[in-house]
Specification:
The structure is a single chain. The protein contains 29 helices and 18 strands. It has 789 residues and is of the alpha/beta class. The protein has a six-stranded mixed β-sheet with strand order 11-10-12-16-17-18, sandwiched between helices.
C-alpha cells in the first residue's frame, strides 16, 4: 500500500491518467487482503480505489481494463461488511454482469471463466430472489467456468471452482452434483501435484485438498457407488510413499547416481565425527525409553557436523527433485477396483480398507470376483474415533509407558467394540481365513492381531505378571518394572485367532510389492545383522538359531562392531532375505530421522531412501518401533519398515512399539521355524499364537537350557572387559583426557552389563517361569506385523 501511494505522487491523474488508474486498481486488492486495520474499513478503501480507477477506465476508452475493475468491484461487494448484505450481493451480481459484457467466452475465455466463478459465488449466497433459482444460476455459472478451467489447462482455478460446485451439491444433499464438482477438483489437484517437483509443495497440495477427497467418498457412499468410493479413498492415501516407491527402480542396475554418492559420502563424514568413541556413550530418555548416543563433541566438531548436515539436506532435496521428475515421466496410475481385487491372493482372503470421515468410519470389504461391500461404524468420526485413539493409545505410549501397558487390553477391547468387529465378522467374513488390512490415520498404530473378538462375553479370571528383570528393549533402554494384568490364552479370542493378517499402507503400495519378482522360497539367501552395539543379551541366541536353521554362512552375518552402515548396505546387495536384530527408534517429530542403530552410528530413514535393493524379498526388522509413526491427514506413514518397501523390498516384518528382548528372541525363532513351510502372514500368525500359549514348563524345558549358556558366556566376556577397563583407568596418568573419558564410558557400560546379566541369571529368567503363560500379554507378541507381499 505504501509503495502504491508513493507511485501516486508522480502518477497523478492529470499527468499520467492511465498509470494513475492502474495504480488505483492495484491498491484495491491490497486493501481487500490487508491484515492490519479494520476489515470493514479496508474493504471500503478498496471499493473507493476501484471507483476512482473507473473515472479513467471507461468502457469506451479502455474496455478490457474497465471490465477488470468491474470484476474487482464484484468481488469487493460480495465480501463487503458495511451496508445491507442483500443489497451488497445485488451490487456484486450487477458488477460481474457488467464485466461479462466485455469478457466474452470467445474474446477473453480465461477472464470470462474467472467472472463466471465469482458470479456463481454471488448467486450462491444471494438473499433476494427465489432461492431455488439462485442455486440453479450458481450451478450454471460454475459449470460455465469449468468449461475453461480444466484440470490440465488451469488446475488451480479448476480446483477452486470444482470445489465450489461440489460444496454446493454436498450442502444441498445433491450428491450427483457434489460428485460432478469434486471429481473435477480432484483431477485438478492431482495434475497440479504431478507438475510440482518440490516435495514439500506436493504435500501441501494434498493436505489442502484432503477434505474434498473425504466429501467425494461420502457422496459416492450416499448414492450407493461403493466402487468409486473405495477408488477415491485409495487416490488420497499415502501419495508421498507412492512417490518414493515409484522411483525405487529408476536407477539402472549397478549404477548409483552421483548425487547419491555425494550424499552417502557426507553421511559417512558425519558418522566419523559423531562416533569417535565406543558406542553408546550415555543414556538419554526419548520416545519409548530408548537409548541415544550423545558423545561429548568439541565445538569444532559440532560446527563441522552442522555444516555437513546442511550440505546433506541440500543434496537430499536435489535427489528428491530428480526422483520426482523421473517418477512424473512414469505417471503412476491410480488403481481400479478390479486391480485392487487382483491383489487378494485366493477366495478365502479379503481386503479391509478403513476410512474415517467427519461423521463415521467406513470399512470397505473387497473379495475376489465379488461386488465390494461397506460396513459403517456410525458416529465413529475423526473426533470420536481417531482422536480417541491418539488420546488413549498414542499419547500414553509416548508420555507414560507404564500407563500405556496397563491400559493396553482395555483400550483394545473398547476399540474392537467401536469398530463392531463381531458384527463385521458375522456379516461379511464367515468364509474368510486371511485379511489384508489397510488402516487409516491413527489406526496404523493399532495391533489388529490383538483386537479381541466375542467382546460381549465376559472374560475369564486373569493372571498378574511382573517381570522386573527382563524388561530390556531393542532400543537399549531399561524400563522400570511393569505390572500388567495378563489374561490366559484361553480367556480371550483375538482377531489373529481367526485370520492370517497383513497390514499395508495402501493398495497402491501393495501393488508395487506385487509387481516385484517373487524369490521368497526357503532356499533364498539369508543375511543376518546382529547386536550392532554389543548390548543385547538374547540376540546371539536368536541369530545363532536362525543361522543353524537356514545354514547361513559366517560371511553373511554382521556381528557387533562389524555391523556398520557400509557393510549393511553391502550385505543387502548379496541376499534375498535379511534378519536385522539390534536397536532402532522412531522419531515422531521428524520421521525421516527414524533410524536403525548400527556399530558406526545411525542408518536413518532419510539415508535408507537413497538406496535401491529390488532383489531383496523379505526383511525381518527384529528391532523396536520400526513401524511406529504419526500420521497426518494425508495418511502417509513414514517408518523404517515402509522405507524398506520403498527401496524395493517386497515384504517387511516390523514392530509397532519397543519390544521385549527375550520375547523377541523366542518369537523370531518360532517365526523362522514356521516360515520354512508357510507364507509370511501364516508364519507370523503361528509364531504369535505359539508364543502367546507358551507355558512356563515349555520355556524352562525347550528354551532356557539353550539361552543360559549364552548369558553365562556373555557374562564372562563382560567381566573380562570390565577388568580391562579398570586396569586402563589405573594407568590414568599415562592417558590423555580424551582416552580417560573413553575408558570411563567403557567401564560404566561394562559394569552395567555385568550387573544386568547377573540379575538375569540369578532371578530374571526364573521370574518369567513363575507365570503359567509368560508371554500371554499382547505386549510380547502383538507388536509384530507383516507389510507387503
Amino acid at each position: 500500500i505504501a509503495y502504491y501511494q508513493q507511485a501516486l505522487q508522480v502518477c497523478t491523474r492529470d499527468a499520467f491518467p492511465q498509470q494513475w488508474a492502474m495504480t488505483q486498481n492495484n491498491l484495491g486488492p491490497a486493501y481487500s487482503n490487508r491484515i492490519q486495520g479494520d476489515k470493514a474499513q479496508n474493504l471500503e478503501h478498496a471499493i473507493a480505489c476501484y471507483q476512482q480507477a473507473l473515472q479513467v477506465r471507461t468502457r469506451d476508452a479502455f474496455p478490457q481494463d474497465w471490465a477488470g475493475t468491474q470484476n474487482n468491484l464484484g468481488s469487493a461487494y460480495q465480501d463487503r461488511i458495511q451496508g445491507d448484505r442483500a443489497q451488497n450481493l445485488e451490487d456484486a451480481i450487477a458488477y460481474y454482469q457488467q464485466a461479462l459484457q466485455v469478457y466474452t467466452r470467445d474474446a477473453f475465455p480465461q477472464q470470462w471463466a474467472m467472472t463466471q466463478n465469482g458470479l456463481g459465488n454471488a448467486y450462491l449466497y444471494r438473499i433476494q430472489g427465489d432461492r431455488a433459482q439462485n442455486l440453479e444460476d450458481a450451478i450454471a455459472c460454475y459449470r460455465n467456468a469449468l468449461t475453461i478451467y480444466t484440470p490440465k489447462a488451469i488446475p488451480l482455478e479448476c480446483w477452486r471452482t470444482g470445489r465450489n460446485l461440489g460444496n454446493l451439491g454436498f450442502q444441498q444433499g445433491n450428491w450427483q452434483l457434489a460428485i460432478e464438482g469434486y471429481s473435477q477438483a480432484i483431477d485438478a489437484v492431482e495434475n497440479s501435484r504431478s507438475q510440482s517437483v518440490d516435495e514439500q509443495r506436493r504435500q501441501e497440495i494434498l493436505k489442502e485438498s484432503i477434505g474434498v477427497y473425504e466429501n467425494l467418498v461420502q457422496a459416492y457412499i450416499q448414492v450407493g457407488d461403493i466402487k468409486n468410493a473405495i477408488e477415491t479413498t485409495e487416490r488420497s492415501r499415502c501419495q508421498r510413499l507412492v512417490d518414493l516407491m515409484a522411483t525405487s527402480d529408476l536407477y539402472p542396475e549397478g549404477e548409483v547416481p552421483p548425487l547419491v554418492q555425494e550424499y552417502q559420502q557426507l553421511q559417512q563424514q558425519i558418522n566419523n565425527l559423531r562416533y569417535r568413541w565406543q558406542f553408546p556413550q550415555q543414556e538419554k530418555q526419548l520416545v519409548g525409553a530408548k537409548r541415544d548416543a550423545t558423545p561429548q563433541f568439541s565445538q569444532k566438531d559440532r560446527q563441522q557436523i552442522e555444516q555437513l548436515e546442511a550440505e546433506k539436506q541440500q543434496i537430499w532435496q536435489q535427489i528428491r527433485r530428480q526422483d520426482l521428475l523421473q517418477a512424473a515421466q512414469q505417471q503412476t496410475e491410480h488403481l481400479s477396483l478390479a486391480q485392487m481385487q487382483q491383489l487378494i491372493p485366493h477366495q478365502q482372503a479379503a481386503l479391509l480398507s478403513f476410512y474415517t470421515t467427519k461423521n463415521d468410519t467406513h470399512i470397505f470389504i473387497l473379495k475376489p470376483g465379488q461386488s465390494p461391500q461397506i460396513f459403517t461404524c456410525q458416529g465413529e468420526s475423526q473426533q470420536e474415533l481417531q482422536q480417541w485413539i491418539l488420546d488413549n493409545w498414542s499419547t500414553p505410549y509416548r508420555r507414560d509407558n507404564s500407563t500405556w501397558l496397563q491400559q493396553m487390553s482395555p483400550v483394545l477391547q473398547q476399540l474392537s467394540q467401536r469398530l463392531h468387529l463381531d458384527q463385521l465378522i458375522q456379516q461379511h467374513l464367515q468364509d474368510i481365513r486371511e485379511l489384508i488390512i489397510v488402516p487409516h490415520l491413527a489406526l496404523h498404530q493399532i495391533p489388529f492381531a490383538a483386537l479381541p473378538i466375542d467382546t460381549s462375553q465376559p472374560t475369564a479370571a486373569s493372571e498378574t505378571t511382573r517381570h522386573p528383570a527382563t524388561d530390556d528393549t531393542r532400543m537399549g533402554g531399561k524400563r522400570k518394572s511393569q505390572t500388567a494384568n495378563i489374561a490366559t490364552p484361553t480367556a480371550t479370542r483375538y482377531l489373529s485367532d481367526l485370520f492370517r493378517l497383513r497390514v499395508v499402507p495402501s493398495c497402491q503400495i501393495l501393488n508395487f510389492c506385487h509387481q516385484r519378482t517373487d524369490n521368497t522360497a526357503p532356499q533364498s539367501t539369508i543375511g543376518i545383522v546382529e547386536d550392532a552395539t554389543d548390548d543385547l543379551y538374547f540376540t546371539e541366541y536368536e541369530c545363532d538359531t536362525l543361522a543353524q536353521l537356514y545354514q547361513v554362512p559366517s560371511q553373511q552375518r554382521l556381528r557387533r562392531q562389524h555391523a556398520t552402515t557400509a557393510k549393511y548396505q553391502n550385505l543387502l546387495a548379496q541376499v534375498q532375505q535379511l534378519h536385522s536384530s539390534h536397536h532402532a527408534s522412531s522419531d515422531l517429530g521428524n520421521p525421516l530421522n527414524s533410524r536403525l542403530v548400527l556399530a558406526d552410528g545411525y542408518l536413518s530413514l532419510e539415508q535408507l531412501l537413497t538406496w535401491r535393493f529390488p532383489q531383496v524379498q523379505e526383511v525381518f526388522l527384529s528391532c523396536c518401533e520400526t513401524n511406529l509413526s504419526t500420521t497426518e491427514l494425508t495418511d502417509d506413514i513414514l517408518t523404517i519398515s515402509t522405507g524398506f518397501l520403498c527401496i524395493g523390498v517386497s515384504s517387511a516384518i516390523s514392530t509397532l512399539w519397543a519390544v521385549n528382548d527375550l520375547a523377541t528372541a523366542v518369537f523370531a525363532t518360532l517365526y523362522y521355524q514356521q516360515r520354512r513351510q508357510h507364507t509370511t502372514a501364516a508364519a507370523l500368525q503361528q509364531a504369535q499364537q505359539r508364543l502367546r500359549c507358551l507355558t512356563n514348563e515349555e520355556l524352562e524345558r525347550a528354551y532356557l537350557p539353550q539361552i543360559r549358556p549364552y548369558l553365562q558366556n556373555r557374562l564372562a566376556r563382560e567381566r573380562e572387559a570390565l577388568a580391562a577397563a579398570e586396569a586402563q583407568l589405573k594407568q590414568r596418568r599415562q592417558l590423555s583426557s580424551e582416552q580417560r573419558l573413553s575408558w570411563k564410558d567403557e567401564h560404566k557400560k561394562r559394569k552395567k552389563a555385568v550387573r544386568r546379566l547377573t540379575q538375569l541369571l540369578e532371578e530374571g529368567l526364573s521370574l518369567f517361569c513363575q507365570q503359567r503363560y509368560p508371554f500371554a500379554h499382547p505386549q510380547y507378541w502383538a507388536g509384530f506385523i507383516v507389510q507387503g507381499q
